[in-house]
Design a protein that fits this description.
single chain, 26 strands, 21% strand, 27% helix, eight-stranded antiparallel sheet, FAD/NAD(P)-binding domain
Length: 538
């Protein structure tokens, strides 16, 4: 079969949601294309397995960003899931929606149906909340949300210190205003990762109207140029059998993520015409915003050595500790192996001029020089602080007309004075928390950036030295009607019939928090738009 009603490009978080929703009524045949492999790798299901799935070509695209002046010329790894489930199979599992103001701002930009009051019911529809349904949560949905299954004395004390420093304890995030500190809730089920594959795709796999192709790399989109109005008719794919063409009688749905979706559009001739010609691609449709507007959360990872307590560093550097963790996990599904990278979070204002909380901490009961390195042999914690609403903008641009060549990913971190001020403010606030009497019994010693870093200029340099991605790229196919907009508020590509982009790339501005749960919400709304339009056209 080479013709389908719908073709979904990318079996990441959004693609899994679409595959489920579009096949549920049995009316439509759907092809789901994934460049990566099946999600049967041992470390995917174990929460701490992110240590072995990120930077692993078995499950990760293993991108690198371009040398960034904002990071003192450094290149850093840029993980993106290359496996069924996409980033939901390798991410930190934090369930975070963002804040009311994020979505109300989208609506104020002219995107109808995207305010907080519009999207909250969509979040609840997908959710299966551990504590049951209430005003802010749903039960019975596919996306399981649970509490942590391991405790650390040092994190409880950090909560007390944050409260002493003006960040009150709250029961949970995700109610529209995240100001405060709380333990993160996670997309897990009884101590195992609950990826989009498990939540949405596995229940749909047995449906005869769903076809899934893995290890199949989309080369380009195909268009009908015979009519006055362009229409996307299908895709060209490199499969295990060779180059194949698949046709879509209704729509092609691009869900390859904030790096993959603009890359495929550009390879297909959709984007900035001058850029495309320079890269050897014949322009098919001018949309100058494709690949632009890239936004991400830059985290600044401070490290504090601590005493009179145990952190994961000590547990993992002991054979007895490792054995005990393994036994606890496989018998009880509790303990450190259930940990996401960060368990504890806090939201606050970097200065009083901010309308709402604009910085977030991810606090880890561990430390290491950089991701992929071994944990330090001394006990330490890592309170990472990030700017939730950065004003710096980057872009994703193809380097050539070859689909196998990775695009250039340029972030331009800390390229605005505003972002530098927030970075300095975040570091100062972190020091304020760490100096609280609530932590005094642990005698915290600042290792990074270090006690010799004193002036604002010193702190700016430290932010550039220590800053790294928190893996939240968005915005490269933004929603709206301005000159850089790629899709409208029903996620249809401007000027091309039969083509939508449905993933985190459509966010006009980044949400104030982690991005996986908002991506599920975007896909739910996208599926609703598609099914509504299918009824209208029938």
């Amino acid at each position: 079969m080479t013709t389908f009603d719908y073709i979904v490009v990318g079996a990441g978080t959004a693609g899994c949601v679409l595959a489920n929703r579009l096949t549920a009524n049995g009316k439509y045949n759907v092809l789901l294309i994934e460049a990566g492999k099946k999600d049967n790798y041992f470390w995917i299901n174990i929460p701490v397995g992110y240590l072995y799935t990120i930077n692993n070509p078995r499950t990760d695209w293993c991108y690198e960003i371009e040398p960034d002046p904002g990071l003192n010329g450094r290149r850093i790894g840029y993980a993106r899931g290359k496996v069924l489930g996409g980033c939901s199979s390798i991410n930190g599992m934090i369930y975070m929606r963002g804040q009311r103001g994020d979505y109300d701002h989208w609506a104020q930009l002219g995107n109808l149906g995207w305010s907080w009051d519009d999207v909250l019911p969509v979040f609840k529809h997908s959710e299966d909340y551990q504590h049951g349904a209430d005003e802010f949560h749903g039960a019975g949905g596919e996306m399981r949300v649970e509490e942590r299954r391991v405790n650390w004395e040092i994190l409880d004390a950090w909560r007390d210190a944050a409260a002493d420093s003006g960040i009150p304890k709250i029961a949970e995030f995700n109610r529209g205003d995240n100001s405060g500190n709380a333990y993160f809730q996670m997309t897990q089920r009884r101590g195992s990762r609950w990826s989009a594959t498990k939540a949405f795709l596995d229940p749909a796999k047995a449906r005869p109207n769903l076809t899934i192709l893995t290890e199949s790399h989309v080369q380009k989109l195909l268009f009908d140029h015979l009519s006055d109005e362009k229409r996307c008719t299908g895709i060209q794919v490199q499969t295990k059998r060779g180059i194949e063409t698949f046709e879509a009688s209704r729509e092609v749905l691009l869900s390859a993520g904030s790096i993959g979706s603009p890359q495929i559009l550009q390879l297909s001739g959709v984007g900035n015409g001058e850029l495309l010609k320079e890269r050897g691609v014949i322009p098919a449709h001018e949309l100058s915003g494709v690949g632009e507007n890239l936004q991400d959360h830059l985290q600044i990872r401070t490290i504090y050595k601590v005493h009179n307590t145990v952190t994961l560093n000590q547990r993992i550097n002991s054979l007895f500790g490792l054995a005990a963790m393994g036994i606890e996990y496989f018998l009880l599904k509790t303990g450190p192996l259930t940990m996401p990278p960060s368990q504890l979070g806090a939201f606050a204002k970097s200065d009083e001029n901010q309308p709402t909380a604009n910085i977030e901490w991810h606090v880890q009961p561990l430390s290491l020089d950089k991701f992929g390195d071994p944990l330090h042999k001394y006990n330490a914690i890592t309170p990472s602080v990030c700017n939730l609403r950065p004003s710096s903008r980057g872009h994703v641009r193809i380097k050539s007309n070859r689909p196998e060549d990775y695009p250039a990913i340029t972030l331009n971190y800390l390229s605005t004075e505003e972002d530098l001020q927030v970075a300095v403010g975040g570091l100062k606030y972190t020091r304020k928390i760490m100096a609280s009497p609530a932590l005094s019994r642990f005698k915290p010693e600042e290792l990074k950036p270090g006690a010799d870093v004193v002036t604002d200029a010193d702190l700016e340099r430290a932010a550039r030295d220590l800053g790294t991605t928190i893996f939240h790229p968005v915005g490269t196919c933004k929603m709206g009607n301005d000159p850089l907009a790629v899709v409208n508020d029903r996620l249809e590509v401007h000027g091309i019939r039969g083509l939508r982009v449905i993933d985190a790339s459509v966010m006009p501005t980044i949400v104030s928090g982690n991005t996986n749960a908002p991506t599920v919400m975007i896909a739910e709304k996208g599926a609703k738009f598609i099914l509504e339009d299918a009824v209208k056209s029938s």
